[in-house]
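Format notes (please read before filing issues)

Several people have asked whether sequences and structure tokens are stored in separate files. They are not. Every record keeps both together, in the order shown below: the sequence lines, then the token lines. Line labels are part of the format and must not be stripped during preprocessing.
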Amino acid sequence: MSLVSQAHRQVLEQECALVELAAHWADLHHPDSQPPVKPVAGGEQGRQLGGDGTPEVLEFAAAELGARMETTVGSARALMADAMDLRHRLPELWQLILAGAVPAWRARKVALATRHLSRDSAMQVDAAVAPSIVGLPWGRFETLMDAKIIEADPQAAEERAKIWEAERFVRAGRTGQTGLKLLIAKANAGDVIWFMATVNRIAEILRLQGDHESADVRHSKAIGILAQPACALQLLSGSSGTNSTPKPNPSSPRSRSTMHRTRRLNPPQLGPPLS
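Then the structure lines:
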């Protein structure tokens, strides 16, 4: 176990070191670090990869870094952008990176989530979330981070919410050889919750009616039933007021056997118990 812990610690430190090296690589490829040359059409130019307050980086730097890391240009560019944000906009998280005290992917998630903020707003979020980034489970930390981002810039949060509202969609993929089709949707959270509750309810009704397919299959059948509102209404209204456990059918051999065992295990009392 000590070897496992040691290996995990080394991975953590090396991933943090890679973020630090990406920032150093960006420094080596700052536009001012190169000798002045006569500008030509299509020549290399400086680009701001990070958010507000980060220095520019020569645009071809990502390609060379990606080649050295054996990864894509996009991945190398994202790494440099995150490193720039952490060093220039999120100083407390940057100190954790330098100490190898935080999973690099977590710090990079914060860098990406705060990139649209001003430098001052990003530093406000950094001060609020840095003490909790290691101790909290990621889901709870992400909730905290989202709240602090909204608190830092409510107007920007409202504008981004409008953009996200416009990203709702429903798409269907191609029909496969088995006649199945993939359905993908992005909708309001409340609508999805209601939809899934109805799908679960119909799938449960199908089970009570004797459908012994897997839950996933019954859920897919429920979507087909919902596509026919009259059928869905009839199915749901016909099951309203019923318990989740079906009543035993006295004519069923299994029910008769169960009732017989119950009577045998619980014989009727013939009189008051003897004192």
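For reference, the curators noted about this record: Residues 48 and 55 are 6 Å apart (CA to CA). Confidence is low (pLDDT under 50) at residues 243-275.
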